TrEMBL record:
Coiled coil: none annotated. This is TonB-dependent receptor. Keywords: Cell outer membrane, Ion transport, Membrane, Receptor, Signal, TonB box, Transmembrane, Transmembrane beta strand, Transport. GO terms for cellular component: cell outer membrane. PANTHER family: COLICIN I RECEPTOR-RELATED (PTHR30069:SF53), TONB-DEPENDENT OUTER MEMBRANE RECEPTOR (PTHR30069). Residues 56-169 form the TonB-dependent receptor plug domain. Residues 301-743 form the TonB-dependent receptor-like beta-barrel domain. It is found in: Cell outer membrane. It is a multi-pass membrane protein. It comes from the Bacteria. GO terms for biological process: siderophore transmembrane transport. Belongs to the TonB-dependent receptor family.
Length: 767
């Protein structure tokens, strides 16, 4: 129950790579340390808790296990487990954030959701239908209480993953029991939020229960979770001062708050919207059966429901003190027009379902294999919003319904591992990933409960990716190992169409092929020092939403480009990994480099008249960086465990002919500096305390870095925040914990405001 579990997991990942690459390295000394390493190895490769990451790890891997999560992190969402891992940042705006929590990696910011891959028990939960805040991993299909461990593979260095792995591959392994067990956890959280003219407390609670058993060859696991959460306002309605007309016209109002936008221009903030109240229900059933001692079948069913009600508050008051939500108003001698949808409510009703099945062998002999498939289905995905002015309370009226039902993806994987001799381990396979996007926007007479009537717009499209890969891990001798592989991909985009109220225009089918080579080299310089180098190419194809979302005007498709090129990245890293204090600690130093051609960003094409703003290819982005990660146990005093990391990234746009102003500027949302620090002190077997510190340097949201005012709505600011957690094990079954996130109450932004100081309390019962 300590931070050393994190260190042990990371050491174990290194030991696996080294023990397969250098057979005499992991066990060449006959002492207690070797016994500990052997035990760690058995833990991580245990057949009933397999990682989906390649058995031969060709690059940097980090991880954290359940005990370390329970001890060190105030975890309310699955993504919280990644909070202190090197170079990772999840843009989580509030507890229960279900639609904007994008994962950022070394050379990819929080606007690039399609540049990482997230799995849960081998099931893809990354939403690769699009790229951006609206296409975040489906974190809700994993709860913190069911996590056994999380492994993170940095970079596109494994041929087993598509080009979306250019940033990282995250693999959640959830629990499967070895005997009867059950767990119940109740958590409460509250935030005192003060921003602009909003001063209010937002709270929530979470209840989770798990039950499982193993009897002979059959094991099962059930997890249920409900989160009821109120978020602080995420959007602040605004009007640029320059947009107002100097006049006495309009209804005189008070309450507007003066400020400056990210470009430093004066504006009025007139309301707070997107105040989510979400009730999220999660249920998961996992079944496993050992057909033979070496062949295991498993099935996972998961369902996630979300009932969201978003409210809005106007800051404006008329002469009688009544709130003003729309119409012509006069603020300090200028007339502004507030549109009916500027300060408006909205609703979501979602039900997403996933299925995953696999059959795999684990002989550890000459040949092993696996057949796996998964389905992710938007069974219900309804968003409702008004198109007429409404007061703060929910009152019906005309609106629109956005129906994404039927959207989803499915995957198929055929994998093999061939061990022809002790020097070579060959991994190969075939994969097929298919994505379907279907969105219909309809008019309705009653935005709250009314039925859909006429079509307002629609878009749809499919994409398929069929891939063949092979990689060979060759143990050259006791000191040298190399891994060489490649991935051939056949990509297709088809059945794309875009509609307005009366017209549907189809897109032409596209078919493209790509090959991505991979290579890595590891050298054991001494018993405690390993040097590694990796290089790999990644091809990230455009998503269906990047290709097919847009509008139709006079029979012409506008605001999107169905001919977008794929992103093509060459990534490399050089690492030195030093074992410290007889294996108690680790120090890793990694230099990384990435060249990306045709990066996909929304920008303005200044080469055409009139200018077009949509998703386009940015010619070249270059990133150079340094990552230092350190972990150690019993530092200075017994019971004090420390882990930390520092990342420097120099990420620059080096060519962009369509938008010349961006050349030489920083890549959006990739800060120059990031750092994490965690100190955990075990007072005794019952009590532990943890202090975590997270830092991110200045970043920009625009390609031309024109957003110079970071600490404001729509800005991307630096931050330094501290988190505190105290955990006490009352007895064998009862555990209590209390924590504070953002202890220093830092107000910081990533387009939307992050959570201010919040209190978390937990009570857990194990049986």
């Amino acid at each position: 129950m300590k931070l050393s579990n994190t260190i042990q997991l990371r050491r174990t990942a290194l030991i696996i790579a080294l023990s397969t690459a250098f057979p005499t390295f992991a066990h060449d000394n006959n002492n207690d340390q070797d016994g500990e390493k052997a035990k760690a190895e058995r833990v991580i490769i245990k057949g009933d808790k397999p990682t989906t990451l390649p058995t031969e790890i060709p690059t940097t891997i980090e991880g954290i296990n359940a005990k370390a999560i329970e001890t060190t992190i105030n975890a309310l969402d699955a993504e919280d487990a990644l909070k202190y891992l090197p170079s990772l940042l999840v843009r989580k705006r509030y507890d229960g954030d279900y639609n904007h929590a994008v994962l950022a990696t070394r050379a990819s910011g929080t606007g690039n959701s399609a540049r990482s891959m997230v799995y849960a028990d081998g099931i893809l939960i990354s939403n690769l239908l699009g790229n951006g805040a609206g296409f975040t991993p489906r974190w809700g299909l994993v709860t913190p209480e069911e996590i056994q461990r999380v492994d993170v593979l940095y970079g596109p260095f494994s041929a087993a993953y598509a080009g979306n792995s250019v940033g990282a591959v995250v693999d959640y392994v959830t629990r499967m029991p070895e005997k009867f067990e059950g767990h119940v956890k109740l958590a409460g959280f509250t935030e005192d939020f003060k921003e602009v003219a909003t001063d209010q407390r937002y709270s929530g609670h979470q209840l989770s229960a798990s039950l499982g058993d193993k009897q002979g060859a059959f094991s099962w696991w059930v997890n249920l979770n409900r989160m009821d959460s109120d978020s602080h306002p995420l959007v602040f309605t605004n009007k640029l001062l320059s947009a107002g007309t100097v006049s006495t016209a309009g209804k005189p109002v008070t309450g507007a708050v003066a400020g400056r936008n990210p470009q430093g221009l004066d504006w009025w903030l007139i309301g707070a919207t997107t105040q989510y109240h979400t009730i999220q229900d999660h249920a998961k059933v996992k079944l496993a059966y050992e057909i033979t001692p070496t062949i295991r079948a498993s099935y996972t069913y998961g369902i996630w429901r979300n009932d969201m009600n978003s409210t809005a508050d106007s800051y404006l008051r008329d002469a009688s003190g009544n709130a003003v939500y729309s119409g012509d108003v006069n603020i300090a001698g200028r007339k502004f027009t507030i549109n009916p949808t500027d300060i408006a409510n909205s609703k979501n009703k979602l039900q997403h379902v996933t299925h995953g099945v696999s059959v795999k062998s684990n002989t550890k002999g000459e040949f092993d294999w696996e057949v796996a498939g998964s389905i992710y289905d938007y069974q219900k995905d309804i968003a409702r919003a008004p198109t007429v002015a409404i007061p703060a309370a929910d009152i019906g009226g005309a609106g629109r319904i956005t129906d994404g039902s039927g959207t989803g993806w499915n995957t198929l994987a055929l994998k093999g591992i061939w061990r022809p001799n002790t020097e070579h381990i060959v991994e190969f396979g075939y994969q097929r990933d298919a994505y379907k996007l279907h969105t219909l926007v309809s008019n309705t007479a009653d935005w709250i409960n009314g039925a859909a009537t006429t079509r307002f717009s629609a878009f749809q499209g499919n994409s398929d990716l069929s891939s063949f890969y092979v990689q060979d891990a060759w143990r050259i001798n006791s000191n040298w190992k190399t891994i060489v592989g490649g991935r051939f991909e056949q990509w297709s985009a088809h059945d794309g169409a875009l509609s307005n109220a009366t017209t549907t225009l189809p897109f032409v089918k596209r078919d493209e092929n790509a090959f991505s080579p991979k290579a890595a080299l590891a050298y054991r310089a001494s018993d405690d020092l390993t040097l590694k180098a990796s290089i790999g190419r990644a091809v990230r194809n455009p998503t269906v939403s990047e290709l097919y979302q847009g509008t139709v005007s006079t029979q012409t498709i506008v605001n999107n480009d169905p001919n977008l090129k794929a992103e093509k990245s060459w990534t490399s890293e050089w690492s030195a990994e030093q074992s410290l204090h007889n294996g108690k600690g680790l120090l890793r130093t990694t230099f990384f480099h990435e060249d990306t051609a045709d990066a996909l960003y929304s920008q303005t094409n200044t080469l055409v008249t009139p200018n077009i703003t949509n998703i386009q290819n940015v010619d070249k982005i270059r990133t150079n960086g340094l990552e230092i990660a350190y972990q150690d146990n019993d530092v200075v005093i017994s019971g004090l465990d420390i882990a930390g990391s520092v990342t420097f990234a120099d990420s620059i746009i080096t060519k962009n002919d369509k938008f010349a102003k961006s050349v030489g500027k920083w890549q959006p949302r990739v800060p120059k500096w990031r750092a994490n620090f965690v100190a955990s002190y075990r007072v005794n077997e019952q009590l532990s305390t943890t202090l975590g510190i997270r830092y991110s340097g200045r970043q920009y949201g625009s390609l031309d870095n024109s957003d110079v005012n970071a600490f404001t709505y729509l800005g991307f600011s630096s931050f330094l925040v501290a988190d505190l957690r105290v955990r006490y094990k009352i007895d064998k079954q009862w555990t209590a914990a209390v924590g504070i996130n953002n202890l220093n109450n830092k107000k910081y932004w990533a387009f939307h405001p992050y959570t201010q100081r919040s209190l978390v309390a937990e009570l857990k019962f194990d049986f």
